[in-house]
Specification:
alpha+beta, 5-stranded antiparallel sheet, about 50% helix, about 20% strand
């Protein structure tokens, strides 16, 4: 699906880029014609400097230098057409145009080099994140599952949103969470949590014990971080999370919430937030107070859909500063399958944010099918 959308958008991107490249040349042509036909005391030549300046804002140094050379050639033709190439006024205009073209070409080089460095860093972070964030299974027992990760479009670093599923003897366990902070340090913390989740999910029969061990693994990592003399900010990291146990044989689910937004249960056109009575602090902060992790049980019947998400979804704002109303938008899409639900919600979320998400966002949709499905 993503590849198809990319291939469909690629011709549009090429056409848009060609239109942008044509703008400086169109500007040169217009200024040249107007300058030639203008009265002797009117000089339009100084406007030619806008052509390489505009080119430098979106293209590389080679194209910027070429646009500057065309602008200098156009100024020379204007000088010949109006007076002489040796005319003092035109000579100064040509020299100034050469100097400014060289100046903006240098800045185009700096901009391109900076963009390449940012792109390489982001590619490394995305590659690391793909290794950490393994795709969820599309089926797990009587459950049909879909997941999506939306990277921030702004120059925010890759975030630490995480999700995972593990098959147990009698059901499926899932986790969704969000690591405090950004960048590779957040991805490393997410990897630690996911590694512990996969290792412990089949060992711990009780959900509270699993969450307690996840907490212990984060505390151990924090101690190692401090001993290794790494950043204090990294050592003070924490993870908001929801951990669920969904048995195959019963129409219910068990949930432990650690400071994370409540899942939404979509049932017969109604959206029900699964708010626990006794939420625990985020993982990594329970050392600040005595905490007993408690699992709460909710009904999760055939045909119900459970929507898990990170705060990058509900904290996304539109141009007027309004947060994305996920429960209301999800209510409009009750009855859709997990894949269709996430696809429509993601498109709606991106529209709400004006095409640019300020923070990474993750969503997971789980539908319970009939036992024989």
């Amino acid at each position: 699906m993503a590849s198809r959308r990319f291939l469909q958008s690629f011709p549009k991107t090429r056409r848009r880029r060609k239109a942008l490249v044509a703008m400086p040349f169109a500007l040169i042509a217009i200024v040249t014609v107007v300058d030639v036909i203008s009265p002797p005391d009117v000089h339009m030549g100084p406007f030619l400097v806008a052509a390489p300046a505009v080119a430098a804002s979106f293209t590389g140094p080679r194209m910027t230098a070429f646009v500057g050379a065309v602008a200098v050639l156009a100024q020379s033709l204007v000088a010949i057409a109006r007076t002489s190439i040796n005319d003092l006024n035109h000579t100064y205009q040509i020299i100034a145009l050469i100097l400014i073209s060289g100046f903006v070409t240098f800045f185009a080089h700096l901009r391109e080099r900076n963009e390449q460095a940012v792109s390489q860093l982001r590619s490394v972070a995305e590659a690391a994140q793909r290794v950490v964030l393994r795709p969820l299974p599309r089926r797990s027992g009587p459950l049909r599952i879909a997941s999506v990760y939306l990277a921030a479009e702004a120059e925010a670093q890759i975030g630490g949103d995480l999700y995972a599923a593990a098959r147990t003897t009698g059901g499926t366990r899932l986790i969704i969470g969000d690591v405090r902070g950004k960048g590779l340090s957040a991805i490393g913390e997410a990897a630690s949590v996911l590694g512990a989740f996969h290792a412990l999910s089949r060992q711990e029969s009780q959900l509270p014990a699993l969450v307690a061990h996840l907490e212990a693994s984060i505390a151990l990592d924090e101690n190692d971080t401090v001993h290794e003399g790494m950043d204090d900010d990294l050592a003070e990291s924490f993870v908001t999370a929801v951990v669920l146990d969904i048995p195959d044989a019963s129409t219910e689910l068990h949930l432990v919430s650690c400071g994370h937004p409540p899942p939404l249960l979509l049932r017969a056109g109604e959206v029900i937030p699964l708010k626990v009575r006794a939420p625990a602090p985020p993982l990594g902060l329970t050392h600040l107070l005595v905490t007993e992790h408690t699992a709460e049980t909710f009904t999760f019947g055939v045909g119900d859909t459970l929507l898990l998400y990170t705060d990058g979804v509900i904290e996304s704002r539109d141009r007027s500063g309004v947060f994305y109303p996920l429960p209301e938008r999800a209510a409009l899409r009750c009855g859709q399958g997990p894949d269709s639900l996430l696809e429509s919600l993601c498109a709606d979320l991106v529209r709400h944010a004006g095409g640019r998400l300020g923070d990474d966002a993750a969503l997971v949709a789980i539908e319970r099918l009939p036992a024989s499905g």
